[in-house]
Specification:
Order of helices and strands: EHEHEHEHEHEEEEHHHEE
Strand content: 15-25%
Number of helices: 8
Number of strands: 11
Radius of gyration: 18 Å
Largest sheet: 5 strands, parallel
Oligomer: single chain
Amino acid sequence: MGKRVLIVEDEQSIVDILSFNLTKEGYDTIEALDGPTGLQLALEQNPDLVLLDLMLPGMSGFDVCRQIRQAGSTVPIVMLTAREEEDDKVLGLELGADDYITKPFKNRELMARVKANIRRMSMAPAAAPAKGQPSLPLGTRMQVDEDRATIYKDGAALDLTQREYDLIRFLAARPGKIFSREALMEHVWNYEGYVGDVRAVDVAVRRLREKIEDDPASPVFIKTKRGMGYYFGE
């Protein structure tokens, strides 16, 4: 059996298109046309990825995402939205979504995101630190416990999503090196040869700064090089 993708979308025409293209790429699909059914299938059918529309009858995509995470599921969730408001994207990421894609989207971009998120979940976890070295330094004020996939700032554990953890680990391992948004989409989001919307990087950086910086408006850890990208500065 191939990898299974759950499509939660109330427009049948979009469901049909998504199902056709995913099947062509070798995925199996299951579909829900409303929020409650989507939540039930996500928890009972154990899909490999969820494509989740925000505007759904019965229960919003935000609530579906929240309840999936509250149930302890780590299934990758890619939100589908026709909205352009960044606040929606921030909220979706905060609730535990792994990524978003704005309608109308190109099939190539959608498939890149599906493949990358499924591949990320199938990858072996990073090797644990050597015995006697329970944590590794990230600059002078932060440390990472790779066994627990937890980052500590000034001795206190940070409440980070998997994406936020991966992002700061990647940048901190290469202090001072500037990475463009496209490069981060490739290396952190695992989107090989990425083309398309890169605002997910800005949203993730903004949310990460709110969690790790003393003053998010004047960051010292995740810094911006105008016109170039982001780098770890501590």
